[in-house]
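Researcher: Last one for today. Full complex below.
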Amino acid sequence: MKRQPTTRARTRSAAEPELEDERMDEQPDRSAADAEVDQDAASLLQELVAYLRDNRTELREEWARRISEAELLGVMSDEEIFSEATEVYDNYVDALETGSIETLQTYARELSERIIPRGVETHEVLGIVLLLRDVLARSLFAQYQDDLELLNRILDAYEPAANRIAVTVGVSFVEERERVIHDQQEAMRELSTPVLQLRERLLILPIIGVLDSARARQLTEQLLAAIRDNRATVVVIDITGVATIDRTVANHLVQTVEASRLMGASTILTGLSSEIAQTLVDLDVDLGMMKTVGDLQGGLEEAERLAGYRGGPAGDATGDVET
Amino acid sequence: MSVAILRQGDYLIASIQSDLSDTEVVELRGELAELVGTYRARGIVVDVAALDVIDSFVARSLRAIVLTASLRGAETVIVGIQPDVAIAMVQFRLNLEPLRVALDLDAAISLLDRLTRGDAEDGG
Amino acid sequence: MEDEVRVPINGDADLVAARAEGRALAERLGFPRPDPVLIATAISEVARNIVVHVGRGEITLRPFEEPDRYGLVVIASDAGPGIRDIEAAVHDDYSGSGGLGLGLPGARRLMDDFRVVSGPDTGTTVTMTKWRFRDELARVREERRRG
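Model: Here's the assembly. Have a good evening.
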């Protein structure tokens, strides 16, 4: 599968809300009547924002109260909740006012960076943002209940904006969480030395878990470096702990075996599940050069033989590069 | 000098010191072909550890060295293919028959000893 | 920001320079191993075609650095007689035979994007690109999205 570089100067991740950078009160293809309505919506939004700022203290307190009631953010103290609530509130209102969510996204990411290590979870973040939306909506009901028509128009302006904010904050949090988990996995992977020296000239690479192409690439580098550093002549790659592999990874495995051969080591693949075995056959992967042995024990015995430890012909280990 | 060629007993050891131009590769081929005859060498080791790139031309030339040496009664072993180079060669799908490879010089000498003592396993 | 590098190709000694420049630039851009070697190998193939079939030409190494990805575009151009059968030049069979001996199929396998434009009046231009996401997580998401 070929990847195409984009020619656009800036690429967007698909996870970013589509309407980033668009003003919330802009719509394409408007008639004059629509334009008037939008103008109306814009001024309503301004009125709304002013109202929210004037009543900032009460609304913020109400929100903090509802958060405690819902037993969210249990890991944070009341002072912390109040302080973060203040920031979120102000950012929320700013986003309503400017229509730009970039500042909000930046804040949401920073907030996530702060609270994820504390153990705050996704449902809590979504929960508090939705609670804020509710608190503000209720307050609007109360304020404008005497003029239902006006209330409706205000809600028409408020709701899409509020929902977009909720999505923005939620998505930023989730993305930040994914990043943290991913970085942790990367760090673990880098620290671990997956290639073990069993005997002189004999290495084993046990692979456990999900094998994607990035991990496969990393393992290949580590394996080839280990072959060089340990002067290995035989390598056992054990995939007992791998449930499935796709075509890309299967091909990668084959290439790893061939590259090891070019460095003078032969490879034995062990621990293929019946599913993987069938996958390899179905994918028509070229297994010509690969020795496979069903179980690890058998593979190790064969490897020791090849490496000259069990009275086998010691010369087999280095030698021909087959096509 | 980009390639140092030494004698070790019956063997010739060609150590490539740096990236070679095509012309230098051709010169190496010629020189090895001649020296095998001059010294009645029974084995050649070509150390490519200094090569960051082994492309189709170098691969063809290595094959040619092997075949030429074989015609003159010598086995050839290639050593020192770097990990990244090995990956590149495999991904490129370079045709590598009938190269013999070993990890390093010691391994290559052992291999040559085995191959030239008695007869080679498969006639090389 | 890295600048574009141009390597004139007039003889086989220039291949050494082209390989070295390509590898060095790839490393400076941050390509992880083994990419710099893959790129240098692909450069070697296309640059050699220039020397062998035309005599002179140029290799342009054009880096690009975007917020979420980075990469290197290699442009091998000459003003020669062109490749008559581009399809045959760019494809080979599974065992590696074919490709008209131009090494293009192999170079194509080493890079992510590969285009050839060639004709008797326009000469030959091979444009090949290798690129990476800056962020491993972005790459994982992209792979997930593609299914």
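Residues 3 and 47 of chain C are 20 Å apart (CA to CA). Helices of chain C lie at 13-29, 35-53, 86-90, 104-110, 136-146.
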